[in-house]
Amino acid sequence: MSDTLKSVLELFTGRFGDSVTIGATQSGIVSLDVDIENWLEVCRALRDEDDFSYEQLSDLCGIDYLGYGQSEWETDEASFQGFSRGVGGMGPGRFNWADRPEAGQVTQRFGVVAHLLSFKHNKRLRIQCFAPDEGMPIVPSLVEIWNSANWYEREAFDLFGIVFEGHPDLRRILSDYGFTGHPFRKDFPLIGNVAVRYDSQKKRVIYEPVEIEPRVTVPRVLRSDSRYKTDDVDLAVEVSTSSGQTDSGEAD
């Protein structure tokens, strides 16, 4: 660890103590896990205090940790065409929906991540907090601290169902007002809940039951072994045959 990075980490721990936990550092960007009860206090300090001066919130998004660390693609076999059949594990979101598999218990399912930028110190910071209630995930809004959080929080509410307490206009921003569910949640059905189309006779958009069959795209494994290698002799015969030549090299 460089002396500069070490001093930055000591600055955060010295100022916020147990209110934050230092996470991974990637590409020089420090990550802070912030307790939900200290979310607003820490964010105001990060914006206002000279040692930090993170004037801009450049991005904010939600995260669903349902099924985190679980893999449905593990396999030790493949078909003779090279296609993997490792989807038998079926993680959350794969279905027959009525018999869908349930993921294990998640301690903290929904998180909110924000990326901050300090022009004064030319530094970036990643901060994260978790909603304490999985059934109704609620996180304090950052709009009063960084106005740019407005539409980002609306997007996270729309796609993940995370409620931002104190947001001045929390409503859907990508899906329509009659949409059911939150499409970025891991347990949202891959084919959706309803089909939407425009009815030329009724002159309006209508909703219908989904008729398509759910399917999982299985990636092909490209292999390089003796089954797929062509000997030089065989290749020469193929070239000769395709050019219309006899064994003596003369054209027919």
Task: Give a short synopsis of this structure.
By secondary structure, the chain is an alpha/beta fold. It has helices at residues 3-16, 39-48, 149-160, 232-242; strands spanning 20-26, 29-34, 56-64, 110-118, 123-130, 138-140, 163-165, 194-199, 204-209.
Describe the protein in words.
The chain is of the alpha/beta class and 252 residues long. The protein has a domain at 3-65 and 108-172: 2-Layer Sandwich (Beta Polymerase, domain 2), CATH 3.30.460.80. The chain has four helices and nine strands. It has helices at 3-16, 39-48, 149-160, 232-242, and strands at 20-26, 29-34, 56-64, 110-118, 123-130, 138-140, 163-165, 194-199, 204-209. The strands form three sheets. Strands 1-2-5-4-3 form a five-stranded mixed sheet. Strands 6-7 form a two-stranded parallel ribbon. A two-stranded antiparallel sheet has the order 8-9. The longest helix is centred in the N-terminal third of the chain and has 14 residues, at 3-16. The N and C termini lie far apart (74 Å). 17% of the residues are buried.
Class from helix and strand fractions: alpha/beta
Q: Classify the beta-strand content into a percent band.
A: 15-25%
- What is the straight-line distance between the termini? 74 Å
What is the C-alpha radius of gyration, as a whole number of Å?
A: 27 Å
What spatial order of strands do you see in the largest sheet? 1-2-5-4-3
> Helical percent range?
10-25%
* Biggest sheet architecture: 5 strands, mixed
Task: Report the count of strand segments.
Answer: 9
Task: Provide the CATH topology of one domain.
Answer: Beta Polymerase, domain 2
Going by CATH, the architecture of one domain would be: 2-Layer Sandwich
Order of helices and strands: HEEHEEEEHEEEH
Low-confidence stretches: 246-252
For the record, the CATH class of one domain is Alpha Beta
The best one-word shape is: elongated
